[in-house]
Design brief:
Length: about 220
């Protein structure tokens, strides 16, 4: 089976299991989404959703966030991983949005990536989920599943993004990105996973990948 054939079959399964995947981070507009995605690095979506209500009660706009001192922001997000760095980034990006973008979140990849604390994956999420522009965010989980399913060589997230963009139409990138995330949580965990019982891995995983993961599971006992 070719990668393209696999992708088509995987898309059908994802559409059946997760037909309307919601954005897991609670937000109201491009700025609150941007803040939530910045906070989500090395932090669960659940934790971010617990933190953001109090944060947004104090600062829901770039202008309001820019007025807060870094220690004030830190006190509101301290339960998130890498909180000190994120507090500085949120203050810094808010100041730039006010000073250089009229208080609005830009809708280009280049401008988003120029903001403090905003990497390629974060920028891609905001671009596709807030503005509806074609982007395929690839985090470590999507990278892992794409390799497990034989859709990418799995060398790095950059290559995985390129491979997935070739396999799926641009208008579906945002939806499939979310579908893979939800499928990973519901059916395809990183560890303790029985590939043979998985709706996708059972037929999509290569024999080499199957041996590798079963061997790793046996080694862990």
């Amino acid at each position: 089976m070719t990668r393209a054939e696999k992708a088509k079959k995987i898309e059908a399964i994802l559409d059946r299991l997760h037909p309307l995947p919601p954005v897991p981070l609670q937000h109201e507009d491009p700025f609150t989404l941007l803040v939530a995605v910045v906070l989500s690095a090395q932090t669960t979506d659940e934790r971010v959703n617990m933190v953001t209500p109090a944060l947004f009660a104090r600062a829901r706009t770039p202008a309001e966030m820019a007025k807060l001192r870094v220690p004030q922001i830190l006190s509101l997000i301290k339960s998130c991983g890498l909180a000190p760095q994120k507090a500085k980034a949120l203050r810094g990006l808010s100041e730039i949005l006010v000073e250089e973008h009229g208080g609005r979140v830009p809708d280009t990849l280049e401008e988003l990536e120029a903001l403090p604390g905003v990497g390629h994956k974060t920028a891609s999420v905001v671009l596709v989920q807030a503005f509806g522009k074609p982007a395929f965010p690839v985090d470590t989980h999507i990278h892992r599943l794409a390799a497990r399913w034989g859709l990418s060589s799995g060398k790095n997230v950059v290559q995985t993004e390129r491979d997935l963009k070739k396999l799926f139409p641009p208008e579906k990138w945002g939806k499939i990105h979310l579908q893979i995330i939800y499928f990973g949580r519901s059916h395809c965990p990183a560890r303790g996973h029985d590939l043979r019982a998985c709706p996708i891995c059972s037929w999509a995983a290569t024999k080499t990948r199957m041996r590798q993961e079963m061997g790793s599971a046996a080694a862990r006992g």
